[in-house]
């Protein structure tokens, strides 16, 4: 259990990127990305999304997941990539994150889900400081698996709904100022 | 205390064996523990196998260490066992929350450390800080049932090692005393053979206790308030405190038990002597009820039972009763509790006596009559039969009789709606609940302001959805405060005006056309139109005061921060309060309106739909999208012609309707939808109203009227202005439900 204790300090420290474990790998705009499997609740087929007005454009809308209303976000738009069309392989990865208010469930549209890859700590590098297509804020680390480069994503940052609601909040504040 | 104390030579052998077994078990569970580490800040899934292995390891640790007399290790193990045991139904896979995972990890680390030291020195190390930290973590999560070993109590092996018990911090003292509070029956907290019952069972019991106690205290309060007029209520009171005493004794909440016992004695005495309780005593009783209620509220949240200022209360109560002999002499435990109460008191008093917050409400249950439950089981039985009939019919489809099939289907449909409406009625509670606090509030306010006030409550039996009752309680309080402070005049003024000296506040609840109406009326001075206008103009809220109707002016009082009070009093005047009323009422899809006659009084009318789960709505289309619009907000439908629509230079579009001009907005604009109709002659116009403002909405098509089941949009999207929820339609697609007050707010923003 000694080994365990050191591993713990390491994860608790600043080296967030070195988070070894299994990752769900998916494609987006021709590149490979990964989400920690532990954050993935399920993967579902693409389904019609109901748009929600007055939301930032990366919020695609909401879907009905077995009677629960779940928001779906578009990673292309979130990352500032050119939009992609829906194909037979388009899926929604349903993620869950623990928040003070409870478990937050959110869907994320991706082009294609490819595999689950085991990512040992030694294969994970810190995120590049520049040069990536995607803002480094979203990248937790860069993983390597069999010659393939996988951008490991920071789920919390992507699902940071304070940012989503900021649009609505700005509007709301403006309204209040008028009242 | 029964404990086998191993003799010296044997001890080291036993310890070696224990350490060896522990290491072995840890090795077996290493992979699982690593998984826990790795999961970082995600909830950790444990399958049945992992759970079994972990439990085996932890139980071995617990039993071994308690046998060998390592109380700290045993206590850590017990906490860990608790973590894994919670909600233990049969053995099923379960998810540990992040905090639980961390607690488990921390426990493992500490256990490792202690075992190492035990191996080397055959005794537990003193690691007060670490243990206190762990105890805090565990207490916060509600896993700690006994803290003695953490609170600096000495380790038994070897006894001479701790000559003087380490100085305890206040926190530790409190924690230590907590233990005795929870389990006063076990004088030897370190006797480890008998475990505390599983966490789930205890908290369920505590939960039931809280629910009961709240009810009892509410009833007791009512009885106290009416005691003067109806002395026979004394018997009820006596019974209530007796029950409370019994229940809290059963749960081992010694402080509550003793206070209620004392109060019961006072009442008993009064009954035996046939004397009435004086108003002072009643006042003190009410304060005691408050203290007990605060204690119960805290208990519901934290699982810890503390009466604020316990010692004071005990003394006071015993002094009243004059029967201190009846209550046993203070035992050491009691003294210890007083210390705890002292330590706790400042923290407690800082916390205001808040009504049950949402945190506590979420876990609250509901009382359902047996009759309704019976109906529900009958209906569900019928539903099963009806489903079987349909299944049968569809199986032998060859000779299918269309008519029989249809009949079976209709039956199914009817049963489904019957069940739905029945389950709705189960959520209904009498509005009485929201009224309860008002009696007390008015009594207190009347005392504080020196205005004699009579409160009339009418229609308390009117039922509404439980959530309605929850959300309406605060607004009612605000409106009553407001009526007392701003409405009812001072005694001198009333005398001068020739009004009855006692002011009257009348609150009436009634059901009307699918809505609950609550009317709050006072016979005070009414709203002062001039003052409101002045304020509004000063704050730039209005432009053309002359064009405003009385109703519009009065509604300004619901705006955030609005106050005409010349001075901020203790009771109200800060301008918060009435905006809460509107906010909560709108959240319930209701409306508020004010009527007032200066010098005579004011009436606030609150109208709220009976239930929140299903609404009648109009399905409308805008561009390619469909929305549900609540019917109760729709006033009129019309097909616009060129002649009706007018474009003005600076006010956008207007529509003329029987001589009235109503601002016209395109729903597509408000919701930023492209591809909707553009010119008059096409589409539909709907006049909607939020109770005060009225606008016309232009949309493409009106599709159908439908009852829709309202679902929340969830936390992630936050609150969206103009959208109140979503509904899943028969085709499985999600449709948004529009929120008219929100749309009107967006429209107003656009118009500026």
Structural description of this entry:
The complex is a heterodimer of chains A (179) and B (752). Chain A has 179 residues and is of the alpha+beta class. Chain A has a single domain, classed as CheA-289, Domain 4 (OB fold (Dihydrolipoamide Acetyltransferase, E2P)). Chain A has four helices and eleven strands, in the order H-E-E-E-E-E-H-E-E-E-E-E-E-H-H. In chain A, the strands form two sheets. Chain A has a six-stranded mixed sheet with strand order 8-1-2-11-10-9, with no helix packed on it. In chain A, strands 3-6-7-5-4 form a five-stranded mixed sheet. In chain A, strand 6 and strand 7 form a beta hairpin. The radius of gyration of chain A is 18 Å and the shape is globular. The N terminus and C terminus of chain A are likely disordered. With 752 residues, chain B is α+β, with helices and mostly antiparallel strands. Chain B folds into five domains: 160 residues, HPT domain (Four Helix Bundle (Hemerythrin (Met), subunit A), Up-down Bundle); 163 residues, Four Helix Bundle (Hemerythrin (Met), subunit A) (Up-down Bundle); 57 residues; 179 residues, Histidine kinase-like ATPase, C-terminal domain (Heat Shock Protein 90, 2-Layer Sandwich); 138 residues, OB fold (Dihydrolipoamide Acetyltransferase, E2P), CATH 2.40.50. In chain B, strands 12-16-17-15-14-13 form a six-stranded mixed sheet. In chain B, strands 4-6-7-9-8 form a five-stranded mixed sheet. Chain B has a five-stranded mixed sheet with strand order 18-10-11-20-19. In chain B, a hairpin with a 3-residue loop joins strand 8 and strand 9. In chain B, helix 1 runs antiparallel to helix 4 and helix 7 packs across helix 16. The longest helix of chain B has 31 residues. The termini of chain B are far apart. The interface between A and B is large, with 54 and 52 residues.
